[in-house]
Design brief:
single chain; 38% strand; 18 strands; binds copper (II) ion; globular; 5-stranded mixed beta sheet
Length: 311
Amino acid sequence: MRALRLRFRALYLPLAALLGAAVAVVPKMAAGDTPPATASFSAVDFAWNVTGGTATQATIAQGGTVTFSYPSGASTHNADFGSGPQPSSCTQTGGSITPVPPLPTVATGPGWSGTCTFNTPGTYTFHCDHHPTTMIATIIVQAPVTTTSSGTTSTGPTTGTGTTTGTSPTGMTPGGNSPPPGTPTTNPSGSGGSPLAGGQSKAIIVASTEHGTSVRGSAILSSAGADGRLEVDVFASRTALAAAAGAGSVRVGRLVRTSLSVGKVRFSVPLSASAKRALHRHKRLALTVKIIVVSSHGVRVSATRGVLLRP
Ligand SMILES: [Cu+2]
């Protein structure tokens, strides 16, 4: 069984890796280009933007840092990485210091700032706890692009010798470090294929109108998604629920499945009692569905869909 799975991986990984790149919309980067080591996001009322613009995605190099802040406004915001991949570490540098992440611990009024470090390549999605459906942004952490298949890391044209000094000269001759024939080349992101079979627009299916008191859909998993995790969160606005006063939205359903198998995974998320009451009262309920699929290697793909539910 294990041998079979390995063979599957070997067959499909290159394809999955390609598709993964399409899903994550990784900016095209030629070999040798290195993304910046830092990025900065600012909370505005009501979005998470790359500071100085309206972009909601930034790419940094592995080991880089991202600064988060809420300089001014009239609401409360924070940066929460939810159940997905977490930064390696975070430090709050402004405002009244709280345990982080989330940064700050809870959505907080203007004046706070902080920094997180990302040592693991991948796609990191974060949101504001107060505005989980509108304030969502993404950080892509890229591994260095290396061009060698041997144990010696050389990122550019290097002469066979002299890349390191003071070490034994054995094995430094070109080819001397080559792995034995047949040894698979280990790419740092080689296990980083998308857990979805194809782009999320096709691999994640949620009808825009549904009937009943559950939100249903499906996700088609690639071989990289085997043993992965699926999370579906359903949100409704406070207004639609006629719940306690206040802006933002409330989670009205949640489903988590682990140990996924390759192929189509169906899900059905029942609504909370308050959402069911609102649905029956208004004969309709507008919902936001956030679907997150994480491979066993930590590669995460998320999608947000709107669903109009009728009883
Ligand atoms: Cu917010």
